[in-house]
Design a protein that fits this description.
The structure is a single chain. The chain is built from no helices and 32 strands. The chain is mainly β and 335 residues long. The strands form nine sheets. It has a four-stranded antiparallel sheet with strand order 4-5-6-7, with no helix packed on it. A hairpin with a 5-residue loop joins β18 and β19. The radius of gyration is 19 Å and the shape is globular. The two termini are 21 Å apart. Keywords: Repeat, WD repeat. InterPro entries: Beta-prop_WDR90_4th, Quino_amine_DH_bsu, WD40/YVTN_repeat-like_dom_sf, WD40_PAC1, WD40_repeat_CS, WD40_rpt. This is WDR90 4th beta-propeller domain-containing protein. Pfam families: WD40, WDR90_beta-prop_4th.
Length: 335
């Protein structure tokens, strides 16, 4: 979703990117240029540009207003599975199955730094909140932090016994949390790379992790069909939320920390009270599994990436439920 919460973008299996109006659900434009599946998309911090990564091995930058391709970035030798802008919007980081993390100049598309170190596919790569570091997770079972200026590897975090599927910095930048196929969630010191604590409780792969806005809690989603909230200081499980019939592949806190949203392969999205763990609302109607979910910055919408339809948004400003094809708009007052 755009930083203002006005637009939604989706990377689709027809090699295109679709932009939607987040309020009406109307399709605004389709961006064409990739020659294979689009695996990841993101807005720039100011909403003026879009970056995408694809199985065609390219990263592309688009003008979000006009829909035209601004820069086509070539360099990766395998699928690109993760892209993100730096906090100031001047750079882009990408993670690829070619085992490299790369930083690109967002204005020119020139490669700034290529980071080697991972020995297997990279699934996730993101900037730190202040833009000085990058964290990446890989099938080589490691989490690595890189200096975003020099490209030097700072700490390498070893401890997971299986693929690392998801990584993210805490909002204060002091810690990193990772989720793995070894069924654990781990917290790492972002400065030293030391494991701070290991959160155990899931009985299957951990697919998604996120910090609360105040860095005090962590939420995780797993193939064991549960969503769990943990105390980030003690590692204690605060609550376990159940209600899915298939794996949970995406979780996120609302921007006020009051709610958690999760998406599952059972084709539903659920909103939970982050204090009680009670289900606040369950949203179905998807024709296939929900791959990714997120609250917009204003907590006015929930965005969901579905396998077949791309992004679906639920508005929480109107009490009415509106079926708008690929976009559903559902009111906050009723959840």
């Amino acid at each position: 979703m755009s930083p203002t919460g006005t637009y939604i973008i989706s990377g689709l299996n027809d090699n295109t990117i679709q932009m939607w109006d987040a309020t009406t659900g109307k399709g605004l434009m389709k961006l064409e240029g990739h020659s294979n599946y689009v695996r990841c998309v993101a807005f720039s911090p100011n909403g003026a540009q879009i970056v995408s990564g694809s199985d065609d091995k390219t990263v592309q930058i688009w003008n979000a207003a006009a829909g035209n391709e601004v820069v086509k970035i070539e360099g990766h030798s395998d699928h690109v599975w993760s892209v993100a802008f730096s906090p100031n919007g001047t750079q882009i980081v990408s993670g690829s199955h070619d085992k490299t993390v790369r930083i690109w100049d967002a204005a020119t598309g020139n490669e700034v730094i290529k980071m080697h170190g991972h020995s297997d596919d990279i699934w996730s790569a993101v900037f730190s909140p202040n833009g000085t570091q990058i964290v990446s997770g890989s099938d080589d079972k490691t989490v690595r932090i890189w200096n975003a200026t020099t490209g030097n590897e700072i700490p390498k975090m070893e401890g997971h016994s299986d693929n690392v599927w998801c990584v993210v910095f805490s909002p204060n930048g002091a810690q990193v949390v990772s989720g793995s196929h070894d069924k654990t969630v781990r917290i790492w010191d972002a400065t030293t790379g030391n494991e701070v604590m290991r959160l155990q409780g899931h009985s299957d792969y951990v697919r998604s992790v996120a910090f609360s806005p105040d860095s005090a809690r962590i939420v995780s989603g797993s193939d064991d069909k549960t969503v769990r909230i943990w105390n980030a200081a003690t590692g204690n499980k605060v609550m376990k939320m159940q209600g899915y019939s298939k794996p949970v592949w995406s979780v996120a806190f609302s921007h006020d920390g009051a709610h958690v949203v999760s998406g599952s392969l059972d084709k539903t999205v659920q909103i939970w009270d982050a204090t009680t763990g009670n289900t606040v609302r369950k949203m179905g109607g998807h024709i296939d599994w929900v791959q990714s979910v997120a609250f917009s910055p204003q907590t006015a919408h929930i965005t969901q990436l579905t396998k077949q339809l791309g992004w679906v948004t639920s508005s929480i400003s109107s009490p009415d439920a509106i079926d708008s094809g690929a976009v559903s708009i559902i009111g906050k007052d009723t959840y």
